[in-house]
Amino acid sequence: MPGFELFGDLERKEVNDVLESGVLMRYGFDGMRNGHWKAKELESELQGTFKSNHVQLVSSGTAAVTVALASAGVGAGDEVIMPTFTFVASFEAIMMLSAIPVLVDIDDTLGLCPEAVEKAITPKTKAIMVVQMCGSMANMDALQTIANKHNLLLVEDACQAIGGTYKGKPLGSIGDLGCFSFDFVKTITCGEGGAVITNNKDYYLNADHYSDHGHDHVGNDRGAETHPFLGYNFRISELHAAVGLAQVKRLPEFIDIQKRNYTVLRDALSQIPEVTFRTVPEGGEESYAFLNFFLPNADIANKVAQNFKESGVDACWNYYTNNWHYLKKWDHLKDIKSLYPVSPEVRKGLEYLKTKTYEKSDHYISRNISCLIKLSWTESELKERASKMVKAIQDSL
Ligand SMILES: *Cc1c(COP(=O)(O)O)cnc(C)c1O
Fold this sequence. Notes:
Elements: H1 9-21, H2 38-49, E1 54-58, H3 61-71, E2 79-83, H4 89-96, E3 100-104, H5 114-120, E4 125-131, H6 140-149, E5 153-157, E6 165-166, E7 169-170, E8 177-181, E9 194-198, H7 201-210, H8 238-249, H9 251-270, E10 276-277, E11 284-285, E12 290-294, H10 298-310, E13 316-317, H11 331-334, H12 344-349, H13 359-365, E14 368-372, H14 379-396
Parallel strand pairs: 2-3, 2-4, 4-5, 5-8
Antiparallel strand pairs: 1-9, 6-7, 6-11, 8-9, 10-12, 12-14, 13-14
């Protein structure tokens, strides 16, 4: 997945443009910047990439999720449905706004289970946050139908699925708002950065203002701008945007390489009858950033993970006991270990986590192995990797 593997001349050129003008900020300083507007250029490039009317760059993927929710009016006491398998940023963003994360099961897509989502809806539910994990997607038609039926926002975190599509639409562009991360390990990187995309002009303007202290961005005197509402600073810098501008132009090349490498490994593993692959919903095409597969049971999955390590197959994980991506290890959330007071409403709203069990998520995550697809593997490295993986799996059965 990581674009950082292929960092080169194009990235250096874009960054040098910014260093030469010395304008590291994305807004203002029109006279000094020699016509360089890297953040604006990247936003317009991303409009094309993600087939979306509006793009707002921000400082991170976590900021993108926060800004997306805030822009659509999610706040104190609102419930946001999210999956048990995701990055911690999902509940961090929800809680930042004093909203309540409602965790629900995933299914064999490794994304939100539509039936579990529908069961979790209450009068307080404001949004469904679908997270497109490991390069693929949840069953988007089913989730969209539920969101429409109950008049809920559908927010799509596509941080890990840049370049994937569903029925011809880029992942991230299907929900009311989509979120991307361009941190250092994502498919395209800015170093740190993120984006909110939407076709809703009001949400976009809210995101534009909110991510810059509420600035209305009218006219060209920054100091004279007014602030129609409260905001915050989630800005991206010109330096970061410059890196992203070079990387986004290489996205098709990155996806091609991922697809080629993924296919070699998948073909090799397909010869083992005990290995099954994650379900990709009909009409979906993965970004090929990860190869995900299931073993018959958790013991075998553990053994495979161990054998991979011992035989030098890196960048593969069993997320069941992973600190960052599965609820099992989120004791800091379950115990609400916050540096500052958390509202009684959110405390009460999170009580269910002390007792609720997630058999369906456990069933899939405990048997899953997720392997990062790198861009830098040579053909012989890839072949060697495929045969090591096959051997490690066969030795575990
Ligand atoms: C990386 C990631 C984020 C957060 O992005 P940052 O830029 O690191 O803040 C959010 N959601 C998912 C699914 C991610 O993988």
